[in-house]
């Protein structure tokens, strides 16, 4: 077969030769270019500024910065006014796009002073000093008032797996305390106390304990003891108006007066079947997970009278 020629040039050979040159050029361009992925943005450094922190992350940072550090959560739970972000080693509470609490049960997540799950009581004392404890039948908690970002009031809490100083930390939490901003907060605190009284009057003791007492108060007052106290009450009457004693940045303290009628068995007075007690005192209300709850009660007996 004759090959076509143009001007003395073999066209087929020229095309083949040109194709080889083109392939060589393309190959050079492909293999010589930088095919590595584009550099990622530098991660946000975990450098906590306050002791109200875990895993190098301050409680009080905005949620966007938090996600740049931790990435997206493994799972999310949404409630009325807050969300819970769950990670393998950390749990975060988020309100109004702010991280308001962090909690961990993982050994390799530290506070700024190096305390972690597995640390001892002496480790805590060396880092934060002596402090009051709240004990239950199962565990003991050590709480420290700590200022967070922007000087916000907060609490750093360590839960131990027993009541002995030889026990170790099993859970750590850091939380910003909610701020009282208006008279509406005070009225809601009064309403919450009234709801607790109504629950006791209806003998709905389970609801009163589970829904209306703070986690702190539950750690002081175990449920069996609370139920035993309630079951002795025949009637309970409070003055309708609760006087405001003080409004703290994170709590409302109310004064109360109550007439309590309790079933009794008195050895020296077998005819008595009830005891009237006039109690006066104060109750501290705190906002926990957006709900007002009883956090502490201090009272004293003003007068008693036996009923026969």
Give the helix proportion (percent range): 25-40%
Mean pLDDT: 79
Stated plainly, the CATH topology of the largest domain is called Nuclear Transport Factor 2, Chain: A
**CATH hierarchy, class of the largest domain:** Alpha Beta
* Number of H/I helices: 7
Q: Order of helices and strands, N to C? A: EEHEEHEEEEHEEEEHHHHEEEEE
Q: Helix/strand-derived class?
A: alpha+beta
Largest sheet: 8 strands, antiparallel
Overall shape: it is: globular
Instruction: State Rg.
Output: 33 Å
Structure description:
There is one protein chain. The chain is α+β, with helices and mostly antiparallel strands and 308 residues long. It folds into 2 domains: 53-176, CAP (Pathogenesis-related Protein p14a, 3-Layer(aba) Sandwich); 183-307, Roll (Nuclear Transport Factor 2, Chain: A), CATH 3.10.450. It contains 7 helices and 17 strands. The strands form 4 sheets. Strands 5-6-7-8-12-11-10-9 form an 8-stranded antiparallel sheet. Strands 13, 14, 15, 16 and 17 form a 5-stranded antiparallel sheet that branches. Strands 1-2 form a two-stranded antiparallel ribbon. The termini are far apart.
